[in-house]
Amino acid sequence: MTADEQSMRRVTAIRNGTVIDHIPGGMVLQALQIFNIDGRQSNPISLVMNVPSRKLGTKDILKIEDRELTQDELDRLALIAPIASVSIIRNYSVAEKLSIKLSDEMVNVAFCVYSNCISNSVREPLSHRLKVLNTAPMTLQCHYCGRNQNLERLVENLL
Amino acid sequence: MNHSPLGEKNMNSLITMNDLTNDDIHRILVDAEKLLPVAKGKLHFPLLKGKILGNLFFEPSTRTRMSFETAMKRLGGEVVNLGAVASSSVVKGETLHDTIRMVDGYSDVIALRHPLQGAAQYASDCANVPIANAGDGAGHHPTQTMLDLFTIKQAHGRIENLNVVLVGDLRFGRTVHSLSYALVRLGCKLTLVSPESLRLPDEIISELTDQGGKLVVTDELKPQLEDADVVYMTRIQKERFPDEDEYVRVAGIYKLDADDLSSVKTDMIVMHPLPRVDEINPDVDSTKHAAYFEQAFNGVVTRMALLCDMLNISIPDKIGGEN
């Protein structure tokens, strides 16, 4: 059994839901925030943090029972985990494998971290646009003010 | 017509210096030189007759607003002004989006100054007519950069490979942000003189370094003067400081007077985007090094060339028509 397979089995296999693998080590809590999971939902959630990974050094794994994440929801994960792999589980089997699609621009995922950017004027009818300049490391730039974004702060600014 | 906030920038808008290639810069500076007699009122040349400039200044401005207006009028065009923000619909809560959509219908080109960064980019997304960024918060001020480059070229005959010393508020000063990008692209060596709290933002330093920029960062002005081709002074901008104490600590830190210029290069020029407070003693005004009033005049001729460029009006090699 490979190290990755051992990691996957640290928690029980789920019957139905979504399994997200290859989240960079320590980032799974931000992933919960991205999916608006705050502990008040009734479906079981399993987290694995900081296990060895060949691809990433250390990685986190997230298993969400009884909820199939949509492609739109998954694409928001690109903010912190652009190479995460996602499986939709139905009746204990992998029914679909999904990948995160990263376009040149993230629209209405998060708002610019700079409070003096025009995009933070709440009454302006604008889309929040972040240009993807690089994926490794993830580098995002506000379309409007042109400033690069601090990813930790950006996660606090998710829409 | 696409007025969607997700629209793309009008191809002729000037938001940052990245909108101009080095060839564009050189071409516009040559055009500006051709227009000098028109800017001085010695020639009548109504190249922009029938065109209207919308001047939208949400922040105070003397030189930029007036020089845009003069540039348009010298070329036979008209100007509509937002006027004081206090007497416009902005105080009734009108969004920038709606203001731009309205003025877009009243004019052929818009000059916009706004306190928030990114406002010019956003305006360009909303408008069909080109937007000239006349300053967006602490962001960019590309038309100022073009007049600065014109001033440098007039004094030295070239821009490339000069030693330029930028002094003062490099953190909040949008003029030096835009100018530093252009100077690095044109192969100048930059010496950045500021107190630590007003250093050029790390992000800009790293971009300039990535572009091959030769930068020296220091907090001492006087030792830099001897080798300088250009000394570009800036005002410490009280209005950009969130904290008065922080302003008081750095206010008046760099002052240049005529005695400081005794051992500088003979063709070294002192520039300043103005207004000045006490960075340049008035005794420098009468020296051959003072270029800042010429620089302010150059705002007219450079903006004439830029307005023509943004409106796709080409300037003939030979212009005539005596007044």
Describe this entry's structure for a reader:
The complex is a heterodimer of chains A (159) and B (323). Chain A is α+β, with helices and mostly antiparallel strands. Chain A has two domains: 97 residues, 2-Layer Sandwich (Alpha-Beta Plaits), CATH 3.30.70.140; 52 residues, Aspartate carbamoyltransferase regulatory subunit, C-terminal domain (SH3 type barrels), CATH 2.30.30. Chain A contains four helices and eight strands. In chain A, the strands form two sheets. Chain A has a five-stranded antiparallel β-sheet with strand order 2-3-1-4-5. A three-stranded antiparallel β-sheet of chain A has the order 6-7-8, with no helix packed on it. In chain A, a hairpin with a 2-residue loop joins strand 4 and strand 5. The longest helix of chain A is centred in the N-terminal third of the chain and has 7 residues. Chain A starts with a helix and ends with a helix. In chain A, 33% of the residues are buried. The mean pLDDT of chain A is 89. Chain B is of the alpha/beta class and 323 residues long. Chain B folds into two domains: 137 residues, Rossmann fold; 156 residues, Aspartate/ornithine carbamoyltransferase (Rossmann fold, 3-Layer(aba) Sandwich), CATH 3.40.50.1370. Chain B is built from ten helices and nine strands. Chain B has a five-stranded parallel β-sheet with strand order 7-6-5-8-9, covered by helices on one side. Chain B has a four-stranded parallel β-sheet with strand order 2-1-3-4, with helices on both faces. In chain B, strand 8, helix 9 and strand 9 form a beta-alpha-beta unit. The longest helix of chain B has 19 residues. The N terminus of chain B is likely disordered. The chains are: A alpha+beta (159), B alpha/beta (323). Chains A and B meet through loops of A and helix 5 of B.
